[in-house]
Design brief:
Pfam families: Exo_endo_phos_2, RVT_1. One of its GO terms (molecular function) is catalytic activity. This is Putative pol-like protein. By secondary structure, the chain is an alpha+beta fold. 31% of the residues lie in helices and 18% in strands. It has 30 helices and 43 strands. Strands 17-18-16-15-28-27 form a six-stranded mixed sheet. Strand 20 and strand 21 form a beta hairpin. Helix 12 packs across helix 15, helix 22 runs antiparallel to helix 23 and helix 27 crosses helix 28. It starts with 17 loop residues before the first strand and ends in a 23-residue tail after the last helix.
Length: 1256
């Protein structure tokens, strides 16, 4: 081999070109570097090294002018040699050196020369510090025939080598091949398309793995990772007809040596042959990585959307293109498109004057975009992508026939849309530039349009249309010159039931990640193995604290429970079976047969007919498979399943089970990469929970006294209150039983792992919890939360503010919180410390008590002719602004002390969080204020913080509070008096909010005047100088209240929202095998009846309007389930179904809700719903509402109450259901001898000699 020096020559040593002497065979690998002239004295290290394996022959020169064949007078130098590089390695026939045209101001040409066709190994090492320009590799052949008698074609591949400052990693490798008419011809064809240089923005690499790219010449090229801003080959092009591969195989190096070149370290390796001598010496330069190519756009004329929907699902399933450009979608709506393909795409479409001319564009839900408004009568739609690739996409269908002024109409479209542009569609135009066999007027016009707007045609000449007899290229894709190197155009071999081939436009941009956090697969858990592993680990490594116990549980789970991957797998097509696979394969085989047979062959017509039969058979098999799959799904909805399974299937039908990446708009640009999204959300949430977010007034107020939670002094418990006693096993079991869900916290432990602990493990957990409780400590791991950002459904913002933070804390922490919270809530409720006007998160309270009291106040004022002002106040970020020391001070004022107070103090202090997006965790951020949303005890602490608002309000004001929602109701005889009282109430709430750290948002608050008359230009109500908007309606916990208490807007909204639910009922009511009507009625009652009766305690004020507006929904689903015609009378359909008509259904619901309210209250007859129930019973049955037993709600059983002593000896001795004489004799014997003083209590309602049994 050539004797390569031990180190590359340094700049100061490069006086004249150096010649590397060595024995060469008949083959010679030459490398030339062409650069612009250098100014005198500006020298840089040489940028290329070539080594070759062989014996004998010619020496190899470095820095030689290979094009002219003469040694250069001075070496060629390259700028910025410190940049990254790439290397090309492989095995190739030696071909003659041929000069090539200068394809750029700065170019690099790799050529081969030999006198024979003997195969040799070679490698070329090229630093990427070559300035931005073009490079080309052009192997040739002297024209000698190969053993098969055919000449070797001459291939060329050319492209752009971008500098680090003008390149985006992930620019695709675009392939192009120019086949020369004469194999011996040495210059490229003059018609070869030029390769523009790229102008992409700078981005950093995200992967350190090597990538393999295919290219057309049998060479193999490898792109390795680099350490800094890399250069990337962005213009390599090849034709599919040529098979070659650039690969990255390198012989194993036995010796490595680092070389310093231009301040950058490179690796030089030398391989050893069998005799131990060096055969190949090479220097490896750091090289960049190309992202894996993705399908950017799928273009297809599908001839009917529903006609070929199954084939479209096949196309989309494997590659999930970013965009779908479809032509001739025919009769379909945007709503139907959005529901198709599992809701993965958002669509925009245009229906032409002829339905066959309809076009549609779909974009993945994870890619932000905006619809372009195109003022054109052509069937064309456009979007502007705002994701990783910012480009305007136009989808057009130009029908056959004459289109007058086509050029002017397309010009007007291209002139108004922002560039760069990707223009695709079925043009029905012919031109050789995109592979047509002829030119027509439309093709020439399109070519002129493309040239005028600087668009490059991406087509490689392949035919896109085939009807069995003729084939042509009429589907065209053109892109702006600046983006020409970013896309690769290809045609699918199958037509998927259409007469157009699907066209894929690929790119190397990284799609938004859909990675997820790995989770435990509890359904595949081996719980016996888990129990044994836990016992073994706990014996050998006895945990001394809760952190050690968490590690033991986690290690036991790893050995017995599998985990999912962090990548979301593709969901299998529910109808894909062996039969459909064979049918699709048979159809493709028949199509290949048709294409192989030339036109005019006698078997051509038979092959076409065979393909048509196979196509129809494939459609039938797919339709049968889809029908069978759907029937299996409907059969799975049965009476034996749980409510959870039922709602899971209903949500699946509703399309609610979508997992889409998060996209944020940060500083005007859309960001979807999980690291950037997580960091942006983390910074935003940290600002919300920072002390600096409070007003200056509040910070000045708290500074002298309560600076932090840690500085708060908690009093000791000198009375040994029961609330501070150690926890019992029954409390732990109760807390574990109430813990639902499977999500794991930061420690990776979920509730199922705790629930399946052996008895010894639960005792260990209880002992360690009591140890933490009695020593007033708190594990540091429990202070960290994982924030899951949940998008707000009613927010139009695209910034971080549209997300609601929900915290995932350690599950063992939440088990202990649940035990503490149970004691704390029972203490607060038993001492009546929480105001009865707070209706949220309390036993015996809820929306029913809220609406019933509000309805009574509104109805009384309206029927009395009073003026009523309703003000809904919004507390901005209430959970984040909860000031911990004020909560502690309130609890101390309520005589709480000792362990429970120190637990709350430890829970609130030194908290931190990390944002979880997919499987990426952000940095840790301090949570200086607030309570974590998602923890158990945080809700109770928030209610304590909200309890002070009631003491600030003046008398005569009705206030209704549900968590952080505050509703003020003020009534009076004159509007002026009402406004004054309302302003005073608002000022009182503002004063309280300022004192505790909350902030009232005037823009999100609403006020509404309720009275029989209309009032114009009311006097404004102010909050801290801002006006509260005055509207005709106000939304209260989902119920819209209008100024006349007609609830017209609310009933219309409910009716509209039930249409989707009616579609679900209509869907599951289609004929199938089981066709269980009782199950369908159960589903309807769950998803429709609950919506119709929500807020009935309030909306029964307008009972007649409710019945007349919502009755069609109720009777509609009865007709659908019963299979009746829409014209069937309502009463008849209800009789056939065995259900009450809607009016009596509502009457029954009102009476039941009135009875439930009466149970929870003192039975005050002035409550409106109670009087309404009495009126209904009098009018329908001429009876009064019977007395309702009063229930005093005590809540859960107290933790320190005495437990019953239960003797289970008989239950353990006999089997359930045994009623033998021996059992009766044993029971009588025990009662007579062991328990002579006893009292019989029956739990089944059976009679005895002394009375009726009582169910307890």
């Amino acid at each position: 081999g050539a004797n390569v020096p031990d180190a590359l020559p340094q700049p100061e040593s490069l006086g004249r070109p150096r010649r590397l002497e060595g024995e060469m065979d008949e083959e010679l690998l030459l490398l030339s570097v062409r650069c612009p002239a250098k100014t005198p004295g500006s020298q840089s290290p040489v940028g290329a090294v070539v080594s070759h394996s062989g014996t004998g022959g010619q020496p190899l020169a470095l820095g030689e002018d290979l094009e002219e064949g003469n040694q250069a007078s001075e070496p060629f130098f390259l700028d910025d040699v410190g940049g990254e590089g790439f290397e090309v390695i492989g095995t190739r026939r030696a071909l003659p050196a041929t000069p090539m045209d200068n394809v750029g101001s700065q170019a690099l040409c790799l050529q081969t020369n030999a006198k024979s066709t003997k195969t040799s190994n070679f490698e070329a090492l090229l630093p990427s510090s070559i300035p931005a320009g073009s490079f080309a590799m052009q192997p040739g052949h002297p024209g000698h025939p190969n053993p098969g008698g055919k000449s070797h074609p001459v291939n060329s591949f050319s492209g752009t080598l971008s500098s680090p400052n003008s390149m985006v990693p992930g620019v695709p490798v675009r392939h192009h091949m120019q086949r020369y008419p004469n194999p011996v011809e040495t210059s490229p064809s003059p018609n070869a398309p030029s390769i523009p240089s790229s102008g992409f923005s700078e981005t950093s690499l995200s992967d350190n793995r090597s990538q393999r790219i295919d290219s057309p010449s049998g060479l193999h090229g490898h792109f390795n990772p680099c350490d800094k801003s890399p250069s990337v080959i962005s213009g390599l092009t090849t034709r599919p007809s040529e098979t070659a591969s650039l690969t990255t195989n390198v012989a194993a190096a036995a010796h490595s040596q680092h070389i310093n070149l231009g301040g950058r370290s490179f690796l030089r390796q030398t391989s050893q042959n069998s005799s131990g001598t060096s055969s190949i010496s090479r220097t490896s330069f750091p090289t960049p990585t190309l992202p894996k190519p993705i399908t950017f756009l799928l273009q297809w004329n599908m001839i009917g959307f529903y006609n070929n929907l199954a084939n479209l699902e096949l196309l989309v399933h494997d590659t999930a293109p970013w965009c779908l450009a479809l032509q001739e979608v025919n009769r379909v709506s945007v709503e139907q498109l959005n529901r198709s393909l599992r809701g993965q795409y958002r669509w925009t479409m245009l229906r032409g004057s002829n339905l066959r001319h309809s076009v549609a564009l779909g974009v993945l839900t994870s890619i932000p975009f905006e619809v372009l408004r195109l003022d054109s009568d052509l069937p064309v739609v456009g979007i502007r992508l705002n994701g990783p690739i910012r480009v305007s996409v136009l989808n057009v269908y130009l029908p056959c026939g004459t289109l007058p002024n086509l050029r002017e109409r397309i010009d007007r479209i291209l002139e108004v849309i922002p560039g760069p542009t990707l223009f695709v569609g079925d043009m029905n135009a012919h031109h050789p530039i995109w592979g047509g066999h002829r030119s027509d007027a439309r093709g020439i016009a399109l070519q002129n349009i493309f040239e005028e707007h600087d668009l490059i045609v991406l087509n490689n000449g392949a035919n896109t249309f085939f009807n069995g007899h003729t084939s042509s290229a009429i589907d065209v894709a053109a892109v702006s010159r600046s983006f020409a190197n970013r896309f690769q155009w290809s045609v699918d071999s199958d037509m998927y039931g259409s007469d157009h081939h699907p066209i894929r436009i690929g790119s190397c941009a990284s799609p938004p990640a859909l990675a997820r956090r790995p989770r435990w697969m509890y359904e595949k858990a081996d719980w016996n193995e888990y129990t044994q592993s836990f016992r073994y680990l706990s014996r050998n490594h006895a945990p001394t604290n809760l952190t050690d116990l968490a590690k033991v549980i986690h290690n036991a789970a790893e050995s017995s429970i599998p985990r999912t991957s962090n990548r979301r797998g593709r969901k299998a097509l529910h109808w894909w079976t062996d039969d459909t696979r064979k049918a699709v394969k048979s159809r493709r085989k028949a199509l290949r047969t048709v294409k192989r047979i030339p036109i005019g062959h006698p078997n051509k017509e038979n092959a076409i007919n065979l393909y048509r039969r196979r196509h129809m058979e494939c459609k039938r098999i797919i339709a049968d498979a889809k029908r069978a799959s759907w029937e299996n799904f409907l059969d799975s909805i049965n009476p034996t399943q749980t409510s959870f399974d039922l709602w899971s299937k209903i949500n699946a039908l509703s399309g609610k089970r979508k997992a889409t990446p998060l996209t944020l708009q940060i500083q005007g640009s859309d960001v979807s990469e999980p690291p950037a999204v997580a960091m942006a959300l983390g910074e935003y949430f940290a600002k919300l929970a920072a002390i600096d977010s409070y007003s200056d007034f509040f910070k000045r107020r708290i500074q002298p006294t309560l600076s932090s939670v840690a500085d708060f002094s908690v009093p000791d418990d000198h009375d040994n209150a029961p609330i501070n006693n150690p926890f019992t096993l029954s409390e732990l079991i109760f807390a574990i039983k109430c813990s639902t869900g499977k999500s794991a916290g930061p420690d990776g432990i979920g509730y199922p792992l705790i629930k399946n602990l052996p008895p010894s493990g639960k005792l260990q957990l209880l002992d360690l919890i009591n140890k933490t409780w009695l020593t007033d400590t708190f594990p540091s791991e429990w202070s960290e939360s994982l924030i899951i950002p949940i998008p707000k459904t009613n927010s139009d913002s695209r910034g971080p503010s549209k997300f609601q933070p929900v915290a995932l804390t350690c599950c063992m922490s939440k088990v202990m919180e649940r035990m503490v919270n149970r004691r704390l809530k029972q203490f607060l409720e038993s001492h009546d410390l929480l105001d009865h006007r707070q209706h949220a998160f309390r036993a015996g309270h809820g929306t029913s008590t809220y609406f019933s009291q509000l309805g009574d106040v509104l109805h009384t004022a309206y029927s009395s002719g009073l003026h009523t002002k309703i003000v809904s106040l919004d507390l901005s970020k209430a959970f984040n602004r909860t000031w911990g020391p004020l909560v502690l001070r309130q609890l101390v004022e309520w005589n709480l002390s000792g362990h429970i107070m120190r637990f709350v103090q430890n829970f609130l202090q030194q908290r931190s969080f990390r944002v979880l997006v997919g499987d990426f965790l952000s940095d840790s951020y301090r949570e200086e204020t607030g309570v974590p949303q998602g923890s158990v005890i945080a809700v109770t602490l928030f209610l304590v913080a909200m309890n002070g608002v009631f003491s600030y309000l003046p008398s005569g004001i009705y206030v209704f509070v549900y968590a952080d929602d505050i509703l003020l109701v003020v009534s009076g005889k004159t509007p002026v008096r009402v406004r004054i009282k309302t302003q005073a109430a608002v000022n009182a709430v503002y004063k309280w909010a300022s004192a505790v750290g909350f902030e009232l948002s005037a823009s999100k608050s609403v006020r509404c005047h309720v009275c029989p008359s209309n009032h114009r230009n009311p006097v404004p109500i102010m909050v801290n100088g801002a006006v509260i908007p005055n509207k005709k309606t106000v939304k209260v916990l989902g119920v819209t209240v209008d100024h006349g208490l007609t609830f017209r807007h609310h009933f219309d909204s409910v009716k509209q929202s039930c249409q989707t639910r009616l579609n679900i009922i209509r869907t599951i009511s289609r004929p199938h095998r089981t066709n269980n009507r009782a199950v369908r009625f159960r589903v309807a009652q769950a998803i429709i009846d609950s919506r119709l009766t929500y807020g009935l305690e309030l909306t029964c004020i307008a009972l007649d309007r409710l019945v007349s507006t919502l009755a069609p929904v109720y009777h509609g689903y009865i007709r659908i389930i019963s299979g009746l015609l829409p014209s069937t009378p309502a009463d008849s359909s209800c009789v056939e179904a065995g259900l009450l008509p809607f009016r009596f259904f509502i009457y029954t619901a009102v009476c039941r809700k009135a009875a439930a309210i009466t149970e929870k209250t003192s039975g005050d007859d002035r409550i409106f719903i109670l009087s309404e129930a009495c009126r209904i019973l009098q009018s329908t049955a001429n009876v009064d509402l019977p007395p309702v037993a009063k229930v005093h709600w005590y809540g859960d059983i107290c933790w320190h109450s005495s437990k019953p002593n239960i003797d289970n000896a008989i239950a353990n001795q006999f089997r359930a259901g045994d009623n033998s004489s021996f059992l009766r004799a044993t029971v009588l014997d025990w009662l007579h001898n062991k328990y002579p003083c006893h009292e019989k209590r029956y739990t089944d309602g059976s009679l005895s000699n002394l009375g009726v049994g009582l169910g307890v």
